Amino acid sequence: MIAGQTFLHYNPIRRKEMTSDAQASWGGLFPRRLGASPISRKIHMQTSTIKADKVERMVVMLNHEAELRHFIAETFLFGEKKPISVDESLREAGIIDSTGVLELISHLEEKYPLKVEDDELTPENLDSIERICAFIGKKIG
Fold it and tell me: Integer distance in angstroms from the first to the last C-alpha of the chain?
């Protein structure tokens, strides 16, 4: 590069023009890429770990959802292929009644390493597939 020549340099904070003399004074570290600093790498690693954990939890929840759908279809719908949305109330849709809730609890305690306490028998925990999956996730960690 010719001394005094102007070029565009990407600065993580802002884009600016620098001369080749200024570049030389910085030890030839330009162009510097975003993510090259140790802090940026640490942040990237943390967000990658968070994303991986979230994906793993989603896969586990999908497995719970598939298993619950199968149980509900076999036990309450007698094998009928009725579409049920994840947030649909099972009681309001007439799929599960009070004795059905007891069957569901029995199934959850047999299938998963959890114990459903009396104070956990609420619609917030057991009224939809989505809520049941969240409840399972909360109970088994």
Answer: 59
Torsion angle of the four alpha carbons 115, 88, 50, 37, in this order, in degrees rounded to the nearest 10: -160
Helical H segments across 15-97, by residue range: 20-25, 38-75
What pTM was computed for the model? Answer: 0.59
pLDDT for 79? 77
Which residue segment(s) compose the domain that 104 sits in? 57-140
Query: ∠13-19-21 over CA atoms, to 5°?
Result: 115
pLDDT of 91-131, one tens digit each? Answer: 999 999 989 999 999 999 999 999 999 999 999 999 999 99
Distance from C-alpha of 38 to C-alpha of 44, rounded to nearest angstrom: 10
The residues near 99 (Cβ < 8 Å, ≥ 6 apart) are: none
- The verdict on residue 80 lying in a domain is yes
